[in-house]
Design a protein that fits this description.
The protein has a domain of 38 residues. By secondary structure, the chain is an all-alpha fold. The longest helix has 33 residues. It contains 3 helices and no strands.
Length: 63
């Protein structure tokens, strides 16, 4: 008769190892993408957001 506790333990450890490998790969890919982004390029892609932020700063708060 198979030792189900041993089988479960083996599968659990393999699943945890696979999840860890995937998390690490995702973090490395995210870091590579972020390293390639330049703040100036990023701001030029979203000028409407900058206009909204500037507009909010110049308007007085109404109470």
């Amino acid at each position: 008769m198979p030792d189900y506790k041993q089988l479960y333990g083996k599968l659990y450890r393999a699943t945890e190892k696979a999840a860890s490998i995937l998390r690490q790969a995702q973090e490395e890919c995210d870091s590579m993408i972020m390293a390639e982004l330049d703040d100036i390029t990023d701001q030029n892609q979203y000028p409407f957001l900058l206009e909204e932020e500037e507009g909010q700063d110049s308007q007085p708060l109404s109470q």
